[in-house]
Amino acid sequence: MFGGHQQQQQQRPPAGGMGQWQAHSDAVPCSNYLCPDTLVCVAQPHECPCPNVEDIKCLIPDAQDKGSSSVVCARGQEECAEVQRKSRKI
Fold it and tell me: HSE-up of 11 (CA within 13 Å, CB side)?
């Protein structure tokens, strides 16, 4: 999906609640995909940056769709490897 990658994200509104998040997202001009955590406009969901600068994007291969994967943000290579290892058990 999405050019071989799928962004897996949870939409979390800012501390002010969903109404405030909606107001922020409405103020960002974007004709493609608006990343829910960072409000960055990108062409496809897998291009969204991780919300925390110390995190890295980890690709988790999709067990059923061999050509695609999900993107998960993790804190460094060790945590990325741990997420990948645990995903194989699912």
Answer: 11
